[in-house]
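Hi U.,

Before I forget, here's the chain from the pilot set. I'm dumping it here mostly so it's searchable later in email.
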Amino acid sequence: MIDLAQNKIMTKSTVKFSSLAESYYPGCSTSKNAVRCLSRSIKRSPALLAELKATGFGPYNHRVLSPRQVRIIAKYLGSPK
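Structure:
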């Protein structure tokens, strides 16, 4: 679960990448499009990508994100809309 209280992301369990993507890009017509948009945003930020890679994040193994990975994404991209 993603708690957006006080503009902070707090999660105690894993989060599906697609669910997080839909939170960041609610205007996308499909979940697949939202995933592409979030993936593109991550790739455009070398510092974000480097920090995520240090946690084991890779181009094909990010279907489920750890709480730490979710916090890293929020640190660079802000809270979801």
